[in-house]
Amino acid sequence: MSVSVVRRIASPKKALTTVALAAATAGLAMTAAPAHAATPASPSKAQAIAHRMIPDAAQYNAFSHIVKHESNWDVDATNASSGAYGLVQALPGSKMASAGSDWKTNAQTQIKWGLDYMNSRYGSPVGAWNFWQANGWY
Predict the structure, then answer these.
(1) Distance (Å, rounded) from C-alpha 48 to C-alpha 54?
(2) pTM across the whole model
């Protein structure tokens, strides 16, 4: 704010209010600035997240085998022919939005959706892996 604008204000109280309002507006503009886009988790980070979410060793190993085959632990893996997306190759990938709006970039959201899918369709990740071994897909 320029000195001439402050001089035009009749009372010191108004000057303080104007300065406070200007500072608050600037502060709001700074906090409203867009955040940096989330970067997808590296394969090792995605595996660590899955390990925390799946403490049972047999279930984790089965889940890990499927994800290794489907996406090689790449959060943004896309199948060029089918359009399947993410760690668990959801088809369409947008199905994972039911687990969170950040489904495109968040390994935890994709893992949650994949676990829910495996549990509801095959009973568990082990059931899904058994099916995958017999059929080459799940």
Answers:
(1) 10
(2) 0.71
